[in-house]
Amino acid sequence: MAERSPLVEGIDKDGDFLDVGCANGLLAADVAEWADQRGFRVVPHGVDLGQGLIELARGRLPEHSRNFSVADAWTWEPDRQWTFVYSLLDLSPEELWCEWVRRLLSWVEPGGRLIVGSYGSRSRGEPPVDVKRVLEDCGLEVAGWSAGGEGPITRFTWVNKS
Ligand SMILES: C[S@@+](CC[C@H](N)C(=O)[O-])C[C@H]1O[C@@H](n2cnc3c(N)ncnc32)[C@H](O)[C@@H]1O
């Protein structure tokens, strides 16, 4: 919780939250709960490459099971946008980070927000990527950022969609 919950500092209103690379849906479920504690109603959505992971996410969040689907985010062409889109830099090779975040930003509805995270590894002694610097280097205007755990070990940065 200390490492992941700073993500919700980027949640500033009610809306639909898409976790790109949602795995078993735990983070999307937690974000909905943490946002609720801050007074915002967030509806969890997610996509992941893994069929088994999506089945676990649907089982975890049965009332939102239709919001979770199997997709490769690099080829997926969704027919809608979300208030909040969250993903990790790690889902992209470093040389494609700018392409990755612009792809994610295209799935954010006007007035919404893209939140990008990076997790370091305590066991490997690796810090998280400086996401704020990466997004600024991609020419994006950063609206805010947060960090969690000791070191810190997680970093989150967000960009508003006009
Ligand atoms: C480290 S987990 C992140 C889980 C959760 N979002 C979180 O932050 O705690 C990364 C997930 O991204 C998924 N993933 C990796 N590449 C993907 C892609 N191109 N499209 C969709 N999901 C992908 C993996 O299957 C894995 O479940």
Describe the structure.
The chain has 162 residues and is of the alpha/beta class. It has a single domain, classed as Rossmann fold. It is built from 4 helices and 7 strands; from the N terminus they run E-H-E-H-E-E-H-E-H-E-E. The protein has helices spanning 26-37, 51-60, 97-105, 131-137, and strands at residues 15-20, 42-48, 68-70, 82-88, 108-119, 142-148, 154-160. Strands 3-2-1-4-5-7-6 form a 7-stranded mixed β-sheet, sandwiched between helices. Strand 6 (142-148) and strand 7 (154-160) form a beta hairpin. The termini are far apart. The relative contact order is 0.18. Residues 19, 21-23, 27, 47-50, 53, 72-74, 88, 91 line the site of S-adenosylmethionine.
Supply the key terms:
Rossmann fold, 4 helices, alpha/beta, 162 residues, binds S-adenosylmethionine, 23% helix, seven-stranded mixed sheet, 30% strand
**Which structural category do the helix and sheet elements fall into?**
alpha/beta
Report the bound ligands by name, code or SMILES: S-adenosylmethionine
Question: Which sheet architecture does the biggest sheet show?
Answer: 7 strands, mixed
- Stretches where pLDDT is under 50 for at least 5 consecutive residues are none
**Which fold name is given in CATH as the topology?**
Rossmann fold
- The side-by-side strand order for the widest beta sheet comes to 3-2-1-4-5-7-6
Instruction: Give, in order, the helices and strands.
Output: EHEHEEHEHEE
- Indicate the radius of gyration in whole angstroms: 15 Å
Whole-number tally of structural domains: 1
| Mean of pLDDT | 98
Q: Quote the distance from N terminus to C terminus.
A: 31 Å
What does the overall shape look like?
A: globular
Question: How does CATH name the architecture?
Answer: 3-Layer(aba) Sandwich
Compute the number of helices: 4
Helix content estimate: 10-25%
Class in CATH?
Alpha Beta
The number of E-state strands comes to 7
